[in-house]
């Protein structure tokens, strides 16, 4: 007999930055308990689903600077839980119930942190009911495709007190023939970066929110040159076996219609900023560039796409915010060719999957992504695999909240039901 839901509850726990976040627990009639903690961003896009915090409300807890989430937790306990008791754990059904409870597009009434926690816990409970891993439950037959990792080496922007204008310099080990080999290459590059950075007089024992090194290079070009050297220093060929990916997170330094570079002390119009980026693409072995322009600077994105010197992934994160309507506009205007998929930007598992499917149908590359505030959960690795996303972005190789996801991918690889292919 299929197990049914006997209890649903929420509680406030801490994320990897020590900030409150929402955890949901679902108990089934077979006594099993399924728990999920939702992630949270720092460079949050304006069009993301609403992360409900107790800011300015009676509930705000003194020591959490208005960031407590007791209101979102109460929505799980008081509004969502009663509607789920006795049902089988089916994500599509539960997501529909939550949409009926709160039809606002950004989940403003219940809070997307509440809805996503319940949605993911339902997915986990559903997989358990079918005696499958989440990855296998999402793709019942055939070999599972492990994602290519995109891994943070240097951090700047909102993740490292503005050490660099741009938020992340990452690497993609696309020449590797297995996931474990890909990870071993990246670990070596990350170690080389720490060692070489220290030799150049920088502090490298402190890490940013996502485990990257917060080295304050004078320019993005210098940061890219450094990472390319680190790739070569471990005996790999930059541009052939391992390439650079950038997350510019340009919304963070877009002010009054201008891009304000703290590194250079200069201000750029969209067209000038585009030229800066095109020069950078000329100089360094970059194959992927995320959020090169601000979240609503649509014209700049479109124009940039027509000027690319070679095949480069142009990734929309803050631009799309895992939102179907924004993706539709991007497909129509040819604003990008890749999308970051962050479940908590969307608020539900099923509609996150709809966005990913729609992107794939339009030949967009898809990258399932963690946030700067994470938990020890590993569902992200299963989702990236079960949905055949092609790529995954989890931060660096430091911090248990990051390694938990890498280790889960190693475990999936070990199961022998997987393949690893280069999406580039
Ligand atoms: P965030 O950043 O999780 O802090 O929003 C991640 C990203 O921009 O990709
Ligand atoms: Zn981003």
TrEMBL record:
Its EC number is 4.2.1.11. Belongs to the enolase family. Residues 5-138 form the Enolase N-terminal domain. This is phosphopyruvate hydratase. InterPro entries: Enolase (IPR000941), Enolase-like_C_sf (IPR036849), Enolase-like_N (IPR029017), Enolase_C (IPR020810), Enolase_N (IPR020811). Coiled coil: none annotated. Pfam families: Enolase_C, Enolase_N. Keywords: Glycolysis, Lyase, Magnesium. Residues 143-422 form the Enolase C-terminal TIM barrel domain. GO terms for biological process: glycolytic process. Pathway: Carbohydrate degradation; glycolysis; pyruvate from D-glyceraldehyde 3-phosphate: step 4/5.
């Amino acid at each position: 007999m299929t197990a049914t839901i006997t209890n649903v509850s929420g509680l406030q726990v801490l994320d990897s930055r020590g900030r409150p976040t929402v955890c949901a627990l679902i108990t089934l009639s077979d006594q099993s308990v399924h728990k999920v903690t939702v992630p949270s961003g720092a460079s949050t896009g304006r069009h993301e689903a609403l992360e409900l915090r107790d800011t300015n409300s009676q509930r705000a807890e003194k020591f959490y600077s208005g960031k407590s989430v007791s209101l979102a937790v109460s929505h799980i306990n008081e509004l969502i839980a009663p509607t789920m008791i006795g049902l089988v754990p089916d994500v599509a059904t539960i997501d529909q119930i939550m949409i009926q409870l709160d039809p606002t597009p950004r989940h403003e009434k219940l809070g997307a942190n509440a809805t996503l926690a319940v949605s993911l816990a339902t997915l986990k409970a559903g997989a358990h009911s079918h005696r499958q891993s989440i990855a296998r439950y999402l793709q019942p037959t055939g070999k599972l495709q492990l994602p290519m990792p995109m891994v943070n080496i240097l951090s700047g922007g909102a993740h490292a007190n503005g050490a660099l204008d741009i938020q992340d310099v990452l690497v993609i080990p696309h020449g590797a023939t297995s996931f474990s080999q890909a990870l071993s290459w990246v670990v070596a590059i990350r170690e080389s970066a720490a060692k070489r950075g220290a030799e150049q007089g920088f502090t490298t024992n402190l890490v940013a929110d996502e485990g990257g090194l917060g080295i304050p290079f004078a320019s993005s070009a210098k940061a890219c040159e450094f990472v390319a050297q680190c790739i070569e220093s471990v005996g790999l060929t930059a541009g052939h076996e391992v390439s650079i990916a950038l997350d510019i997170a340009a919304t963070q330094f877009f002010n009054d219609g201008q891009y304000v570079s703290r590194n250079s002390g200069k201000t750029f119009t969209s067209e000038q900023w585009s030229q800066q980026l095109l020069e950078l693409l000329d100089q360094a072995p970059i194959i992927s560039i995320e959020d090169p322009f601000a979240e609503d600077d649509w014209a700049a994105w479109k124009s940039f796409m027509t000027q690319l010197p070679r095949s480069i992934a142009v990734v929309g994160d803050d631009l799309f915010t895992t939102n179907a309507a924004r993706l539709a506009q991007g497909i129509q205007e040819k604003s990008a060719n890749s999308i970051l998929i962050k479940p908590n930007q969307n608020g539900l598992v099923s509609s996150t999957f709809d966005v990913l499917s729609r992107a794939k149908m339009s030949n967009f590359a898809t990258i399932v992504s963690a946030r700067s505030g994470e938990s020890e959960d590993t569902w992200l690795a299963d989702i990236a695999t079960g949905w055949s996303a092609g790529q995954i972005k989890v931060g660096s190789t430091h911090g248990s909240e990051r390694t938990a996801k890498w280790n889960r991918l190693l475990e999936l690889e070990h199961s022998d039901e997987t393949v690893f292919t280069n999406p580039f």
